[in-house]
Amino acid sequence: MDGMSIERASLVCGGALCGVENAQAELGRVVIDSRAVQPGDFFVAYKGERVDGHDYIASALARGAVCCLAERLPEGVRGPVLLVRDVQTALEQITAAYRETLRLPVIGITGSVGKTSAKEMIAAVLARRFRVLKTEANLNNQIGVPMTLSRITRAHEAAVVEMGISGFGEMRTLSRIAKPTLGVFTVIGHAHLEFLHDLNGVLRAKTEMLENMADNAWIAVNGDDPLLRDFPCKQRKLSFGLEEGNLLRAVDVAQTAGGTRCRIVGLGHEIAAEIPAFGKHMVYAALEGAAVGILLGMEDAEIAEGIRRFELVGRRAAVCDTGSLTLVDDSYNANPDSVKCGVDSLLTLPGRPVCILGDMLELGEGAAQMHFGVGRYAKERGAALVLSCGEYGAEIAEGAGESGRCFESAEALIAALPGLLQKGDAVLVKASRGARFERVSEAIKELVL
User: Fold this and answer.
1) What pLDDT does 216 receive?
2) CB atoms within 10 A of CB 2
3) Rounded distance, CA 32 to CA 264, Å?
4) pLDDT, position 200
5) Do 31 and 37 touch, CB atoms closer than 8 A?
6) Secondary structure of the chain: what % helix, strand, coil (to 5)?
7) Are 73 and 12 in contact, with CB atoms under 8 Å apart?
8) pLDDT of res. 110
9) What is the pLDDT of residue 189?
10) Buried b (16+ CB within 10 A) or exposed e, 22-44
């Protein structure tokens, strides 16, 4: 954290310095795993359910941490340590103060679906002109956002910050720390309903971001989502989508052997987009990248090149030809909206469409009905087979009617695949990460039909 000294951090959070010989030393990036500490890092000792970071302060210092943030000083440790009442509160205060010193665009990304794809696409586009810092992996919560901000240096010219929440008030905290200068809202969908209750609750929680944004700031919103299209706000809206009426639209969308192709038009721009990834949701990611690029003054050619250089992260709609069939491995995450989008995209591929669907987590009281709904949706859209397992596997299969089949375990489902799949099939594997459906995807890759 350029310019954030140990002394300054202690003043910001009201902490006490122990064993600090050089209070003017600057804090580096925030690290919460002592094994990942590099010289100059700022180690934060969190106390978890199973591991207490305070037990690893000595190890962090030995690895070169410039200082540690802690609630107690372990026996035998002399410092340098910044002692505070609550490490989370102190970390938020320190990184918020650091954010105030930065003069660069900070793009805050939120939504129920597609945050990480949007983050990667926006960063790929902006990298054509700017030195960009982006959220690493899925560090998008009240620990991850401060970690991301701590990694911004004076050399960076833009920061792309993914912001994820599961309850009310969390986005208000994240945006108070990050203070986005530009916001991106991907979609308001059926995620975290266990805590947010309904779609209006999701919208209310996500749009807490705006409370810490300037009134004249731009926000890019998915105009195909009626909740995002219609909600009132002080900020200026740039709507994007596939439907007419959006300021920025994708037209002439087509799936190709290498991914997806479309034209992005509007606001005086026309961008020929070649997206090296599969699916309708990736068109929205390209629109998000284009919207941010346009708002930051980039040329059409730069934006098109950034979209072309986008790279998928994890198991998000990764398409591969196994030699026997086409596999769409989207086993990273799932909710009803993303599953339906995945089904729609699957049907654009040649071959008999087969959906292998697992549990969608954190849906609250309506979970059974929503699982039934995605099974029915897959059947009505034309899936030849809908295979499932898990806590709500029976509901998925029931919704799919005669096309559905539920198995008692993933192992049983995998064992049945050779007799159910056919050469040339197009197969979608989709579930929340906790369902561990990557096992199913890997088994399909090994099939010889």
Assistant:
1) 95
2) 14
3) 41
4) 81
5) yes
6) 40, 20, 40
7) no
8) 95
9) 67
10) eeeebbbbbbbebeebeeebbbb
- Contact by Cβ (8 Å): 189, 370: no
* Tokens 């609630």 found at: 71
Residue located via tokens 């500490």: 37
What is the largest distance, in Å, between two alpha-carbon atoms of the chain? 73
Total Cβ atoms within 10 A of residue 365:
9
Q: What are phi and psi of 304, to 5 degrees?
A: -60, -40
For the packed helices 438-446 and 410-420, what is the interaxial angle rounded to 10 degrees? 30
| Side chain identity at residue 173, one-letter code | T
Instruction: Specify the pLDDT at position 317.
Output: 65
Please give the helix or strand (H or E) that residue 371 lies within, else none.
helix 367-381
Distance, CA of 427 to CA of 329 (rounded, Å): 8
Q: Which amino acid is at 354?
A: V
Q: Is 150 helix (H, G, I), strand (E, B) or coil?
A: helix
First to last CA, the chain: 55
Residue 5 CB-density burial (10 A; 0-12 exposed, 13-18 middle, 19+ buried): middle
- CA 149 – CA 173 distance, rounded (Å): 14
pLDDT band with cut points at 50, 70 and 90 for residue 315: low
Q: What is the C-alpha to C-alpha distance for residues 239 and 169, in angstroms, rounded to an integer?
A: 25
For the cut 60, the answer to whether the pLDDT of residue 135 exceeds it is yes
Which residue from 345, 348, 353 is spatially nearest to 325, judged by alpha carbons?
Answer: 353
Rg of the chain (C-alpha set): 23
Query: Any bridge partners for residue 275, and if so which?
Result: 260
